[in-house]
């Protein structure tokens, strides 16, 4: 029997969106999650079985033991980089029994997760890259031009989100270095953004068939942070779609993925990163009427993407909100009032935590947030 297994290393609304997308399509998924204080993805009403394990490796071993079948391949789906990299490592043991995000050989996705490698391949296809230096922590490039931003080389390390600093001089950069445990880091030309764009997409047939499903932009700009509130629309940027398709073909990726860009004051798009997985905005494709998780699964079975069948016009003004994060960013800091925020919350068609008809995960997350995240 074909199963749809959601492997969760970290409880988050990304894998929750996968579960809800499957459930709303009439598919009851299985959740295999690394146990921790927060357990809410597996509590969705759509989940038919759930298992808790001590590590991502244990989760993969459990999946192989219980669900490997040569008669009918099952799907392994995930929404975080650590899990994607681990599944990539297990490629040879999984490939005959499961459909999963892959690039045709063990370790190939992890190779392209390295920001140096990632930037090299997108630059090859004429996508704008900010000037970047790879340095030892504490080393200031001789030809540095301020302002700069520090970034982790790879997004699967322990502190990758904690070492992002914007620095305007040597003193600030040295201060940023003092907070880092990593041996090496990227120092990148800082682009002042007016918007941030995300292209959510799927690919099959070893990266030869690519479809950019939606394009997201910020409802409001946070200069140095990722926005939790987005406009969703059909992508009409054909030039960028072609460049994205060429990159994915070079990588030979079969998967769900996202390209992120900064937009500067002159309208230029500057490459940020590729996420080789379902992202925060994955569930917004479901609300928009084009559920990328379901379409990727169907397309992997068929070997091609039926774009004409799948395409739908996204309603004008469709918005997606990571509501718990957005509330903290704007209401708790006094940017807008609670009443103003509630009006926007009520009109957001896609709510990452609340979902559409699946209340318990939201309730459990809020209980955890009130207890541990003040």
What does this molecule look like?
With 374 residues, this protein is an alpha/beta fold. The chain folds into three domains: 4-100, Rossmann fold, CATH 3.40.50.20; 131-189, 2-Layer Sandwich (Dna Ligase, domain 1); 195-372, ATP-grasp fold, B domain (D-amino Acid Aminotransferase, Chain A, domain 1), CATH 3.30.470.20. It is built from 14 helices and 16 strands. The radius of gyration is 20 Å and the shape is globular. The model has no long low-confidence stretch (mean pLDDT 95). This is D-aspartate ligase. GO terms for molecular function: ATP binding; ligase activity; metal ion binding. Residues 119-301 form the ATP-grasp domain.
Separation of the first and last Cα atoms: 44 Å
Structural class: alpha/beta
Largest sheet: 7 strands, mixed
Q: What name goes with the CATH superfamily of the largest domain? A: ATP-grasp fold, B domain
């Amino acid at each position: 029997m074909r199963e749809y297994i959601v492997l969760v290393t970290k409880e988050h609304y990304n894998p929750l969106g996968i579960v809800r997308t499957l459930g709303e399509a009439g598919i009851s998924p299985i959740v295999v999650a690394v146990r921790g204080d927060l357990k809410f993805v597996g509590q969705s009403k759509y989940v038919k079985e759930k298992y808790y394990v001590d590590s991502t490796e244990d989760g993969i071993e459990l999946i192989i033991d219980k669900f490997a079948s040569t008669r009918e391949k099952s799907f392994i789906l995930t929404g975080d980089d650590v899990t994607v990299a681990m599944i990539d490592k297990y490629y040879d043991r999984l490939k005959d029994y499961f459909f999963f995000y892959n690039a045709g050989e063990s370790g190939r996705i992890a190779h392209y997760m390295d920001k140096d490698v990632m930037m090299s391949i997108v630059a090859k296809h004429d996508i704008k890259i900010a000037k970047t230096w790879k340095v030892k922590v504490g080393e200031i490039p001789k030809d540095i031009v301020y302002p700069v931003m520090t970034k982790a080389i790879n997004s699967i390390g322990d502190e990758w989100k904690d070492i992002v600093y914007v620095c305007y001089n040597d003193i600030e950069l040295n201060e940023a270095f003092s907070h880092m445990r990593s041996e090496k880091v990227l120092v990148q030309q800082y682009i002042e953004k007016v918007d941030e764009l995300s292209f959510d997409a799927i690919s099959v047939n070893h990266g030869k068939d690519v479809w950019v499903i939606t394009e997201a932009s910020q409802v409001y700009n946070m200069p140095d942070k990722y926005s939790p509130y987005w406009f969703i629309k059909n992508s009409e940027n054909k030039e960028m779609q072609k460049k994205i398709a060429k990159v994915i073909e070079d990588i030979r990726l079969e998967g769900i993925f996202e390209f992120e860009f900064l937009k500067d004051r002159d309208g230029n798009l500057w490459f940020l990163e590729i996420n080789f997985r379902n992202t925060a905005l994955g569930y917004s494709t479901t609300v928009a009427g084009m559920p990328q998780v379901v379409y990727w699964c169907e397309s992997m079975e068929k070997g091609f993407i039926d774009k004409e069948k799948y395409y739908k016009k996204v309603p004008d003004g469709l918005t997606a909100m990571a509501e718990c994060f957005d509330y903290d960013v704007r209401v708790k800091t006094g940017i807008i009032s609670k009443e103003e925020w509630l009006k926007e919350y009520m009109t957001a068609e896609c709510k990452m935590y609340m979902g559409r008809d699946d209340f318990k995960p939201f309730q459990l997350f809020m209980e955890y947030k009130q207890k541990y995240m003040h």
